[in-house]
Amino acid sequence: MDVNKDAGLDIPVGVKEIENQSPSAEKATDTPSFPQASRSRPHIHSLERYINHQSIANFGVIILASWESFAVTFQFALANGGPASMFYGSILASLGVTAVGLSLAELASIDPTVGAQYRWSANLAPCAPRFWGLLQGWITVSAWSFACAGPPSIIANIITSLTIFNYPDYESQRWHTSLVMCASIIFPLLFNLYFRKLLSAFELFGGILHIVLFIAMIVVLAVGGQKSSSEFVFKTLTNNVSGWENSGVAWGLGLLTVTFSVTGFDSVLHMSDEVKKVKTRVPQSIILACTVNSVMLFAFVTVLLFFIGPLDAISTAPLPLIYVIYNSTHSKAATNTLIALIALIIFLAAFNIFASVSRLVWVFARDKGLPFSEFFSYVHPNLKLPTNALFLNGSIVILLSLIYIASATAFNALISLQALALHISYFFPILFILLRKIRHQHPSYGPFKLGRWGIPLNLFGIGYLVFVILWMPFPQLLPVTRDNMNYAGPILGGVVLLALADWWGSGRWRFRMPVSRYE
């Protein structure tokens, strides 16, 4: 299958599809010649376009669920940076993710493809296109495969924390959390088998709930919360809790909780083969996901800080939001209801994540980027879904859930890969398109283009990504022990080594993604 054709892409003049060239033409492009057998694709499967504008717009907004994600994870920012890091960090993260989102939306309008980052990196790289494609593919697929465990772990933490809140004598065990995670995986996995029938209803319900619950939370906090001073919100920098005494380091580490909440909008891209009018609607969905979630996140962070109440009462809680809401409502029923609705939003996000990642795994396998590619590139003829890729994601999450029983540290180490690897996956395609713009070698633009703002936005987006990436490997606590060590860097290093081993082993001959040359 010609990915460019199926994605609705008009090939720019001067673009040569290596996949379709004869061996002699292939040599003329200075691209290594590969054996004829490795180029053949005997079993090519495709997906059908049926996702409308409303569904894909809601899909992007819900999968980030930025204010909800921050609401259930801000305890980490309390220990590093505190209120000042949370407030100013939400501004920086909103601006940064918008610049990155606009940059990727422009690329999506040029080439809307399920492979997204690895396809663009290969197409735009100044040299060694297949190498960059395979490396980027391993980084992106690994990040999203582990990211599938994120929503189940958050839901498990919510359920465990609510149980402790309602039954103070309850003693949480790791195997309890693991069982909850496994249970919360089953429903998104099964619902995805009926993705086509459930999509419109799920996305509409999730989009409405996302907004209505946001308004309800703002009202509850503003009406019943204990008012904080402006100095507390704008000037309080916490640098004496985590062991990091340097104010700059504490602020930078506190920023990571905010950036995590706005990471993952590329998931929309991985649905490209099923979206109608893909070259306009996917970019629009990316922009909506970034801007809407950024505005809501900033508003929620600001209101939360002004009505959070005394930090001493919540800083040690596994889920501080429970006690913030309870202090505002003085009602366990109201607290349980609001927290349960947030968990429902996270559940809907998990539904979307499983859908998106299964497509990413499917297309990478179809391009022979994975072992057992024929198996994982299978599309069920009746369901029109990549079922084998879907069950692979479910199996990975179940395995991670079982790892949690043995070691919470190992589990956290593996899922910590998500944010770091995704930011790196955004960096390379933006860098490569920026270099082409500077050299006046950019490809033909699609319906959405940044125009004269393109280079400044690309530069700002790259600067933001570099800044965030530099902080992500830092340990959150001092002194560093094996239990609190930040393993994101070493895990990413392991993925890169695996990708390099695959490249030098068989990947450089096996990997047959359609690579385009812009001349």
What's the CATH H-level superfamily name?
A: Amino acid/polyamine transporter I
Q: Let me know the average pLDDT.
A: 85
- Strand portion, in percent? under 5%
Biggest sheet strand order reads 1-2
What is the correct CATH architecture? Up-down Bundle
CATH topology: Amino acid/polyamine transporter I
Shape verdict: globular
- First CA to last CA: what distance? 24 Å
Number of helices: 23
In total, how many beta strands? 2
Give the biggest sheet. 2 strands, antiparallel
CATH class group? Mainly Alpha
Q: Topology as H/E string?
A: HEHHHHHHHHHHHHHHHHHHHHHHE
Alpha carbon gyration radius: 23 Å
Helix content: 55-70%
Unreliable stretches (pLDDT < 50, length at least 5) are 1-44
User: What is the domain total for the residues?
Assistant: 1
Decide which structural class fits the backbone: mainly alpha
Strand and helix map with partners:
Blueprint (H helix, E strand, L loop, with lengths): L2 H4 L9 E2 L5 H6 L7 H4 L13 H12 L1 H6 L3 H5 L2 H29 L6 H8 L4 H19 L2 H17 L7 H19 L2 H30 L5 H6 L11 H15 L16 H29 L13 H10 L2 H35 L6 H4 L10 H20 L1 H8 L1 H22 L15 H18 L16 H23 L5 E2 L2
Helix pairs in contact: 4-12, 4-15, 4-17, 7-14, 7-15, 7-21, 7-22, 8-9, 8-21, 9-17, 9-21, 9-23, 10-11, 10-17, 11-17, 11-19, 12-15, 12-16, 12-17, 16-17, 17-19, 19-20, 21-22, 21-23
Membrane topology: Multi-pass membrane protein
Subcellular location: Membrane
Protein name: Amino acid transporter
